[in-house]
Automatic annotation (TrEMBL):
Its cofactor is FAD. Calcium-responsive mitochondrial glycerol-3-phosphate dehydrogenase which seems to be a key component of the pancreatic beta-cell glucose-sensing device. Pfam families: DAO, DAO_C, EF-hand_7. GO terms for molecular function: calcium ion binding; glycerol-3-phosphate dehydrogenase (quinone) activity. This is Glycerol-3-phosphate dehydrogenase. Its main location: mitochondrion. Belongs to the FAD-dependent glycerol-3-phosphate dehydrogenase family. Gene3D superfamilies: Alpha-glycerophosphate oxidase, cap domain, D-Amino Acid Oxidase, subunit A, domain 2, EF-hand, FAD/NAD(P)-binding domain. Transmembrane segments: none annotated. The lineage of its organism: Eukaryota, Metazoa, Chordata, Craniata, Vertebrata. Residues 460-495, 496-531 form the EF-hand domain. Signal peptide: none annotated.
Length: 564
């Protein structure tokens, strides 16, 4: 459970910090403050998945929004810390009533293992799907109010939706809501609504992914083939649907929010959605002020700019291009993501060594994320490689394969900044790869082509693909290696580095013996025809090479007119 701590009585109208203090400084504040006015557990940052309400999906960067709120609170004097776990709630006896009252929390720094107490006049439980976990710390016999529901989302190429238009249908074939909307230059589609257990690691199921694909097919022209291979990422978020404990109808699930106050004074805010988060906060703080006799002044958050918003303008990116020599696409991304803080990122950008762009080395070629964002992300409390690929950049949500390709460089950059040794780097790589494999749909994607995949091709197709394969396997070995591919590429004057070739062959090398056999190649082409696999680099490379070889015109060598 993540923590955000807010000392409401000392809240000021002007920032007390030019920049949010470091995580280490924040933890010192938490440990050394005798008592806070308000302690917020969660603050909306819990869980690795995200299930957004449809209104915000189009252009909303939920991770950035959540972080911007925390950073803004820190600048205005709140003590905030991520990677903190609530071990238990603290209680004291009220001298007037003799009853036990919640008075803080026993906290554990997950990164160091250190435990310490944080005391507060009021404790707010804002832990989303983990709502009842904290409520049962207060009273183990309390009735659960949260009914978690899994919402699976998939990301597909941008051509599945117009740039500024999406579709939402509240009545699908089985009564659920379906949508597909433009998001981060891709298309996001969803969603499912299935009862689930609460977990830190929700996993999208193949059944839910196929449900979404089948519904999307109903809305597109019949000449557009909706392919399973076009799913670039998939994840499951957990919605904290709630029942109101004060309602007579305790079985009725609400998609709105509920504020509950326990006998011991624990305030719980549950349910709700991104589009109503300010209303949720207002109702919660009003309840806290009333229940705990807190001193409240006028609200200072109406019209308050979040981190990066004060000097932002629609043309800010032009200054980034002109002043720093960034690519226009990269500059637009930085301006949209960081606002006026984009200049801080640009100052950290590495020189490319090219004529243009001058600075801004990309993490992967097809996305505008640059290496400087890794360094800047650490300033914004990024502690792990998973933080960087999912909650600072959105690579994991946009394309799991691209995220995996960027991981080694991201870990190298983070290790340099955070003084990781080789063992720690390996641990981060392994953890991030497991995250992509299980939680972001890489496992489901990779299972579309396995050594058990059937070959379902017409005889004419098999002959055509065998002919293509043997242009690479010139000596009829029955398999091709990197050497074979390099030989063909050199013959058509195409250069490709060996590491890239290793990656390309490894995608199709199903038995991982360092070579692609004819059977594996036919399995790949069959999966492509059925739409289970798309964008195979080896298939495209071999087709292009074959076309180049077939276009070659033989040069006649016969003598003519007595010439030499």
């Amino acid at each position: 459970v993540n923590l955000a701590f807010v000392e409401a009585a000392d809240y000021v109208s002007e920032p007390v910090n030019r920049e949010p203090p470091s995580r280490e400084a924040q933890i010192l504040t938490l440990k050394n403050t005798s008592e806070f006015d308000v302690l917020v557990i969660g603050g909306g940052a819990t869980g690795s998945g995200c299930a957004l309400d449809a209104v915000t999906r189009g252009q909303h960067n939920d991770a950035r929004m959540n972080l911007a709120i925390a950073l803004t609170a820190a600048r205005y004097g709140a003590a905030t810390a991520n990677y903190m776990e609530v071990v238990s709630l603290l209680k004291r006896t009220d001298p007037q009533t003799g009853k036990k009252r919640v008075s803080g929390a026993r906290c554990k720094d997950v990164l160091t293992g250190e435990e310490f107490d944080v005391r507060a006049k009021c404790v707010i439980n804002a832990t989303g799907p983990f709502t009842d976990t904290v409520r049962k710390m207060d009273d183990k016999d309390t009735t659960a109010i949260c009914q978690p529901s899994a919402g699976v989302h998939i990301v597909m190429p941008g051509y599945y939706s117009p740039e500024s238009m999406g579709l939402l249908d509240p009545a699908t074939s089985d009564g659920r809501v379906i949508f597909f909307l433009p998001w981060q230059k891709m298309t996001i589609a969803g969603t499912t609504d299935t009862p689930t257990d609460v977990t830190h690691h929700p996993i999208p199921s193949e059944e839910d992914i196929n449900f979404i694909l089948n519904e999307v097919r109903n809305y597109l022209s019949c000449d557009v083939e909706v392919r399973r291979g076009d799913v670039l990422a998939a994840w499951s978020g957990i919605r904290p649907l709630v029942t109101d404990p004060k309602s007579a109808d305790t079985k009725s699930i609400s998609r709105n929010h509920v504020v509950d106050i326990s006998e011991s004074g624990l305030i719980t805010i549950a349910g709700g959605k991104w589009t109503t988060y300010r209303s949720m906060a207002e109702d919660t703080i009003n309840a806290a002020v009333k229940a705990h006799n807190l001193k409240a002044g006028p609200s200072r958050t109406v019209g308050l700019f979040l981190q990066g918003g004060k000097d932002w303008s629609p043309t800010l990116y032009i200054r980034l291009v002109q002043d720093y020599g960034l690519e226009s696409e990269v500059a637009q991304h930085l301006a949209a993501t960081y606002g006026d803080k984009a200049f801080e990122v640009a100052k950290m950008a590495s020189v490319t060594g090219k004529r243009w762009p001058i600075v801004g080395v990309r993490l992967v070629s097809e996305f505008p994320y640059i290496e400087a964002e890794v360094k800047y992300g650490i300033k914004e409390y990024a502690c792990t490689a998973v933080d960087m690929i999912s909650r600072r950049t959105r690579l994991a949500f946009l394309n799991v394969q691209a995220a995996e390709e960027a991981l080694p460089r991201i870990v190298e950059l983070m290790g340099r900044e955070l003084n990781w040794d080789d063992s720690k780097k390996e641990e981060e790589l392994e953890t991030a790869r497991k995250f992509l494999y299980y939680e972001m749909g890489y496992k489901s994607r990779s299972e579309q082509l396995t050594d058990r995949s059937e070959i379902s091709l017409l005889p004419s197709d098999i002959d055509r693909y065998k002919k293509r394969f043997h242009k690479f396997d010139a000596d009829q070995k029955g398999f091709i290696t990197i050497v074979d591919v390099q030989r063909v590429l050199e013959s058509i004057n195409v250069q490709m580095d060996e590491n890239t070739l290793h990656e390309i062959l490894n995608e199709v090398d199903l038995n991982k013996n360092g070579q692609v056999e004819l059977n594996e190649f036919l399995q790949l082409m069959s999966a492509i025809q059925k739409g289970r696999v798309s964008g195979s680099r080896l298939a495209i490379l071999m087709k292009t090479a074959e076309e180049n070889l077939d276009r070659r015109v033989p040069i006649p060598v016969d003598r003519s007119c007595g010439g030499l």
